[in-house]
From TrEMBL:
Belongs to the flagella basal body rod proteins family. GO terms for cellular component: bacterial-type flagellum hook; extracellular region. Pfam families: Flg_bb_rod (PF00460), Flg_bbr_C (PF06429), FlgK_D1 (PF22638). One of its GO terms (biological process) is bacterial-type flagellum assembly. It comes from Nocardioides caeni. Residues 418-456 form the Flagellar basal-body/hook protein C-terminal domain. The gene is flgK. The keyword Secreted applies. The keyword Glycosyltransferase does not apply. This is Flagellar hook-associated protein 1.
């Protein structure tokens, strides 16, 4: 009798365990498409009978099964690697997006770019050599010169517009970093309290993992796990989240709160209860990409345009001053250029075709000075080097991005195999749990019949 009632307990434990298994498998299926969801598995533990009393004999074989744990299928090492590679990919993709947009604005090679305008300007001087007295040819020189200056000013305007957009973008990214850091600190607290109360915190852990991944994509942040399970987040060597507390990620210099430049290099700072520290290096991720583009890439290209415009103005003005205009007066400046403003200030200084100094002798129309002007380089080689250098930088980033994307996809695939929900596998788990539940129920039915026979029919034969 004792053994029979013990079997009922075993069957009951099986029903309860398989019910949990069904619930977990069903929850996995329901969240198969939920971003950041980590599949759960049930670990069963065999229940052993209590130690028998002295001199007693135990002839049982265990008292059933119980749920040992419901575990999230995570690999901390794989998670750390995924965060690191996603941070690197975010840096490269952001850089590629910005540079590709700038390259599109440069418009080279093309019929409306700066290079084409330089060729037109050079050719207009050659045409004037053939007809030095022609007002149309002289006006063409002025018009092509203004087209060249306008093309250069347009490129500078595009660069300045991109810089303004990226400064605003950087402010938004900094705000997003602080929101995510605060949420991680809050989840650290909530997870700790929840698990201390004996409640499963798997969903909260899923949310925290997503936020940690987002911080890695934003700043290249790294995560360390405390013995009590809380996350500590470090950005560029400085602590941003420490347990239940989060610091404030701040743009220390380079960009004003309104999105303007303050003329100084871009730096970052973390303000927290444990101190205020300026980051010694630029963060990674999207924040680092935008900061690097604003600090080095775009300023370097604009400086190249400024140097090109300055050299063009100086070269043309020097040769133009060596000739004589239609009235026989010495030529003046053909371009105006302000070195404090740069290429954005380049303009044609004359509007009267008669002031074009095409001649090399006073009172003559030999066109020799126009020929000398047509022989000048007009910045063609320097501009080509500048554009080719920028294009090489864009191509290099594209290659790096493609390689990093392949590596990241490989890690994502490994993570998906580890933590993702496989519907076929979960279907098998559901069927297995269902059949085990049915078997446990059948065991109860059998035991009920056995006990009915023992209790109600034993000893009634012959009555």
């Amino acid at each position: 009798m004792v053994g029979s009632f013990g079997s009922i307990t075993s069957a009951l434990s099986a029903l309860r365990y398989q019910q949990v298994a069904l619930d977990v498998a069903g929850n996995n299926v329901a969240n198969a498409a939920t971003e950041g969801y980590v599949r759960r598995t049930v670990n069963g533990v065999s229940v052993s009978s209590a130690a028998p009393a002295l001199w007693s004999v135990y002839d049982g074989h265990g008292d059933g099964v119980q749920v040992g744990s419901v575990e999230r299928q995570v690999d901390p090492l794989l998670d750390a690697r995924v965060r690191r590679e996603h941070g690197s990919l975010a840096y490269l993709q952001t850089t590629q997006t910005i540079l590709a947009r700038v390259e599109e604005g440069i418009g080279e090679p093309g019929d409306s770019g700066v290079y084409a305008a330089m060729l037109d300007f050079k050719n207009s001087w050659q045409d004037l050599t053939l007809e030095p007295g022609s007002d149309a040819a002289r006006q063409q020189v002025i018009g092509s010169g203004e087209s060249l200056a306008q093309a250069l000013r347009l490129q500078v305007s595009n660069i300045a517009g991109e810089e303004a957009d990226q400064r605003s973008h950087l402010l938004n990214l900094v705000s997003e970093v602080n929101d995510a850091a605060g949420a991680v600190a809050e989840l650290n607290h909530n997870i700790l309290v929840t698990e201390q109360n004996g409640t499963d915190a798997g969903t909260l852990r899923d949310q925290r993992d997503l936020l940690a991944l987002r911080l890695a994509e934003l700043t290249g942040a790294t995560v360390s796990v405390r013995p009590d399970g809380q996350f500590d987040v470090v950005v560029a060597g400085e602590s941003l989240v420490s347990g239940r507390e989060a610091g404030t990620f701040v743009l220390a210099s380079g960009v004003t709160p309104t999105g303007d430049t303050d003329g100084s290099p871009i730096t970052f700072r973390v303000d927290a209860s444990w101190g205020s520290t300026v980051l010694g290096t630029t963060p990674g991720g999207k924040v680092g990409a935008v900061a690097d583009v604003l600090t080095t890439t775009l300023p370097a290209y604009r400086a190249g345009l400024d140097a090109l415009a300055a050299d063009l103005a100086a070269t043309i003005n020097t040769q133009h001053a060596a000739g004589f205009d239609l009235a026989g007066a010495a030529g003046g400046d053909f371009f105006t250029y302000d070195p404090l403003v740069g290429a954005a200030s380049l303009q044609v200084a004359i509007s009267d075709p008669a002031l074009v100094a095409a001649s090399s002798v006073t009172g003559g129309l030999d066109g020799a000075n126009a020929d000398a002007l047509s022989q000048l380089g007009h910045g063609l080689d320097d501009y080509q080097k500048l554009v080719n250098g920028f294009g090489s930088r864009v191509a290099a980033v594209e290659r790096q991005t493609a390689n990093q994307a392949a590596l990241t996809r490989s890690l994502d695939s490994a993570w998906e195999q580890q933590a993702g929900v496989n519907l076929d596998e979960e279907t098998v788990n559901l069927v297995t749990a269902q059949r085990a539940y049915e078997a446990a129920a059948r065991l109860l039915t059998t035991l009920d019949e056995v006990l009915d026979t023992l209790i109600n029919r034993t000893g009634i034969v012959g009555r």
